[in-house]
Hints:
3-stranded antiparallel sheet; Aspartate Aminotransferase, domain 1; 7-stranded mixed sheet; Aspartate Aminotransferase, domain 2
Amino acid sequence: MENKIIPYGKQNITEEDIEVVIETLKSDYLTQGPKIKEFEDNFAKYVNAKYAVALANGTAALHLCALALDVQPGDKVITTPITFAASANCIRYCGGEVVFGDIDPDTYLLDINSVRSLLEAAPKGTYKGIIPVDFAGRAVNLEEFKALAKEYDLWIIEDACHAPGGYFIDSKGEQQYCGNGQFAELAIFSFHPVKHIASGEGGMITTNNEELYKRLLKLRTHGIVKQDDLYTNSIEFAGGIESYPLWYMEMQALGYNYRITDFQAALGNNQLKRADSGLETRRSIASRYKQAFSGKSYVKGQSGVVDGHAYHLYILEVDDRLGLYNYLRTKNIFAQIHYIPCHLMPYYREFGWKEGDRVASETYYKHCISLPMYPTLPKEELDYVIEAIDEYYK
């Protein structure tokens, strides 16, 4: 077993995945073809949203969300420090100011009380929006955040990269799926190889807002439109007589080339078919971890078994994290750390953030370690990971 490498996350590419990619490569379209719309429609249905826009990656998705919501230089937006840097960086791309809340130490999610404290301490209108993150796969209670956002006239971007298929239980006892558009104006997902659905690279934005949907489509492709009823120049200028000629197009905004390819979309679409079975396996692995580590003296905290948790990550908080991390590597178990608090990255320190500003996030970082978590993790390897951790602390 010690000769096998066990990573914290891993893609699962099947023969059928390979076949659909080859089929698309042999087709007439490598990009801007029918596979993209097919993937978008199926993904929107999967999360119960009205619209979906496929993109090059999750970072591009976040950037376009900020653009679509018209983030301007100086606009203040609140997010969590415990996330990948892109959740915050999208606001900086637009010249906005990132303000970090703190996390709830029990859930590892953005603490709504921390957000409320920031809002109450500033004049109304100081902040423009909130970016909660479904960290590790645990769904943020967006019903509660929506009520707070409405009170202060804020928009919400849900970063659901860790949580396709995840959900929270609302005040009526109903399941509200991540990215369903009921509470956040926009939600984003990632299809990086270690995520639930892999397309190599790739991202998705979901929304129920038709106006934002159309804006996103324009921004995704250089700000260019090819639709008669959207044109602003005259038919005569375009070179037509009674209608616009077929070649005509207009650049109406400063957009980007954030398109996904057809073969990536084909791979993502095929992986989507296995999303539910993958979730079931992730939850089974999480239950085994929970059972194995509950009550252990060296464990300071751990991901619980929670309804709707999508388990992109399974996290332990432990004593002597560095020692355990290094020991596991000697056993070819490549655990990972998620994440270094964003507000203490050198870039964000330049804006005045310092140690001690977000105590719960900083305390979490001192102890967190992400264990191997992916659907193809064999039982014997899972048991080997558990035994290695116990062995270290013994």
